[in-house]
Amino acid sequence: MAATDRAAKRRARRRLRKLRDLPWLATGIGALAARDAAGQTSVDSKFLFYKESGGRTQVLNPVLLLQQDLGENAGELSLLLGYDAISGASPTGAYPTSDVTTSASGHTIASGSFPQAQYTDARKSASLSYGRKFGAHLPSIDVSYAKENDYTARAIGLSDSWTMLHGLGTLHFGAAFSRDTVSPVQNPETNPDGLDLNYHKDENGFSLGWTQVLGERDLLDVSASLMQLSGYLTDPYKVVPIGADKSQTVPEQRPDTRSRRALVVKYGHHYLWDGALRVIYRYYNDSWSIQAHTLEVTYDQRVDSDWIISPQVRFYTQTAASFYASSFTVPQTYMSADYRLAPLGSILAGLTVARVIDHHLTLSLGFTYQSQNGRDRVVPTGMLSPPEEGLIVRPVSAADMSILTIIGGLSWRP
Known about the structure:
- There is one protein chain.
- The chain is mainly beta.
- The chain has a single domain (6-412), classed as monomeric porin ompg (Porin).
- The chain is built from 1 helix and 21 strands.
- It has a 16-stranded antiparallel beta barrel. A 3-stranded mixed sheet has the order 4-5-20, with no helix packed on it.
C-alpha cells in the first residue's frame, strides 16, 4: 500500500526553501551574503535528508537551482529542478494496540503500537520563473509541474514588488493557482473494488504584504495570505476507528472545501559585529477550525570573514480540526483520525554552517532536530481492566515522533 505522506514531503521541501535567499532581508541582513547579481549566472545545489523516528517517512531530496541574469533590460530567468525519493511508513489512523514489554528493572510496560502502512514513492518536479524590473516594479511569473506515483500538480504564479517611499518601503503581492489530480493506488481497505480512480483538487492562493526599512540595520515585513482549496481533499489511505471496541475501520472523509488564512510578521536586525537576527511569527487558521502559532528565531554570525554560523530555534502549536477524533462511536459525515489534524506541539533546534571557499564558491551544512508531541493521548486497546499488577499504562499519540533533517548545499557564482 503506497500511502504517500505528502505533509512530510512538504515539510522537507520547506527546509530547503529556507536556505535560499529571503527577499525581505535584501537590506541589512543580506549584507552577510551580498553580491552584485548583474549579468551573472548562479548555480545552487542542495541535498536534503529527512527522517522521522519509528521507521516512518524518510526523504532523500536533491535540488538544483539555475539562475541567469539576462541583462538590465531583459530580466532574470530561473529553473528549479527537484527529485524526492520517499520511503518508510505512515500511521493509517487505526487505533493503537497494546504491546507489552518488560523493563530492565522488572516492571511490565505497555506501549502503544499504531498500525502503519509501508510505502515507497518518487516525486519529480520542475519550476521555471521569469522576472524583470520596470521602474519601481519587479513583476515575475513562474510555472511548475510535479509528478509522483499518485499525485500530479500543475501550478502558475504571478507576483509583483513595488518599491515606494524613496526605497524605504515595498508593497508585494501575488497570486498562485494549482490544478492537481489525485490518483490513489489500489488499496483493498479504502478501494475494495480496485478501481482506477482520479480526483481533482484546485488551489487558489493570494498574498499581500509590506516591507519597511526601519533604519540602517532594521527591517520589518508584514504579510497576509489566503488559500482556497476545493475538490478532493480527503487522504485516500487513511481510515477511522469505529465502534465501542475500535476494531472496525472505515475510510476517512473530509470536507471538499477549505479556506486557509495566515498572517506573518518578520523582523530582521543587522549588528555591527557582522551578526544578524531574524525573527518570524506566523498565525494560521482555517475553515476546519485548526489554529496554529509558529515562532522562529535564527541568528547569523560571520566568523573570520569566511564562515557564517546560524543557530535556529522554532516553536509550533496547533489545535485539532473540528472533525478529528482518535475514534468514533458511529460514522459521521466528516471524520478523520489523521494525526496531522490533531492537537499537537513541537520544538525544533538546528544549526547551519556556511564556508566561503572563494569569491565563486560557498559550501553549507546544516541540521535540525524536531521533537513533536500530540495532545490527544489515548490508551491502547487490549489492556486489562483493571490493569495487571505492576503494569504501567502509558497513553500514546500518533503525533509523537522526532524528526532529523540534514541539508548540504553548494553555491557557485562566476
